Amino acid sequence: MLRTAVPNLVALVSGFGWHVQDLHRAAEALNFRLNAISFPRVVGQVGTGTGRSRVEAGGIDLGQVDGVLVRMMPPGSLEQVVFRMDALHRLEALGVPVLNPPRAVEVAVDKYLALARLDAAGLPVPPTWTGESAAEALAAFEWLGGDVVIKPLFGSEGRGLVRVSDLELARRTFHTLERLGAVIYVQAAIRHPGYDLRAFVLGGQIVGAIRRHAPGADWRTNVSLGGRPELCSLEPEAERLALSAAKAVGTEMAGIDLLPDLDRGRLLVLEVNAVPGWRALAGTTGVDVASEILLHLKAARR
């Protein structure tokens, strides 16, 4: 693979908002070449007569770049998402560093699979039920204490979450999801002190952490939904859980959400995000997260 003095990186994105602009800022400061390309522009070529398949995006041969950052996995049909993952796996097979690794992205994007990995690793997680039957989901509603959070299996930033503590509302919600052909993902609502912890893990190290306070009477702490970020230092147990969670899911870069469970007096691992945002964390901690990400990707060159 041809290497140049200036690292040549590509970010696969779903839009060109703040995070992409921050990556460009960091790349310019580091004297790195960075191309941000919309994920749907990825194409694959097989049977070129060279004995190797080719993956391109925006006319760039991704097999020849120094690293590929998966900034976001945009919504799409099953075929579209499967092909995008196929392309990432192909790049990894060609020896191109991909952040996060394709298998880690596949696991983290699926809330059930990620939570099962965490549970299998012995990490504390909220009691959760997943299935397709409204009738069985209603039985799970009772098992989970009659106060639950219903989440989309795929989703982030707290969007699409519904908290339900009424039996009839739960019945209607589950039947609606069943009719839509959706997977029903139901989690026990955890009594918490009005905040959670977000740790940003990169290369087995914690880059920074914040405490996110829920706005007003809202139970969701996501900054994108109005949560207030606050600088914090993680206690040893929180640090251990964050690093163990990233390892269990296979992520080199992750946003780990930890939730204090007041009833059980312990921290729970709520989620592992393989395409984490860092705007609130960078602004609160002062850490140049974008530069740290690009430097980590550059160091992964083979």
* Number of helical elements: 9
Strand segment tally: 16
State the CATH superfamily name of the largest domain: ATP-grasp fold, B domain
Provide mean pLDDT, rounded. Answer: 92
- Low-pLDDT residue spans: none
Overall geometry? globular
Give me the Rg, rounded.
20 Å
How would you spell out the order of helices and strands?
Answer: EHEEEEEHEHHEHEEHEEEEHEEHH
Specify the CATH architecture of the largest domain.
2-Layer Sandwich
- The main sheet orders its strands as 14-13-12-15-16
List the domain count as a whole number.
3
CATH topology of the largest domain: D-amino Acid Aminotransferase, Chain A, domain 1
Give the class from helix and strand content and strand pairing: alpha+beta
How many angstroms does the end-to-end distance come to? 9 Å
CATH uppermost class of the largest domain: Alpha Beta
Secondary-structure map:
Elements: E1 8-13, H1 18-30, E2 33-38, E3 42-45, E4 54-57, E5 60-61, E6 67-70, H2 78-93, E7 98-99, H3 102-109, H4 111-120, E8 128-131, H5 134-143, E9 148-151, E10 162-164, H6 167-179, E11 184-188, E12 195-202, E13 205-213, E14 228-231, H7 236-249, E15 253-261, E16 266-273, H8 279-285, H9 289-299
Parallel strand pairs: 1-2, 1-6, 6-7
Antiparallel strand pairs: 3-4, 4-5, 8-11, 9-10, 9-11, 12-13, 12-15, 13-14, 15-16
Helix pairs in contact: 2-3, 5-6
Keywords:
302 residues, alpha+beta, Rossmann fold, D-amino Acid Aminotransferase, Chain A, domain 1, Dna Ligase, domain 1, 3 domains, 9 helices, globular
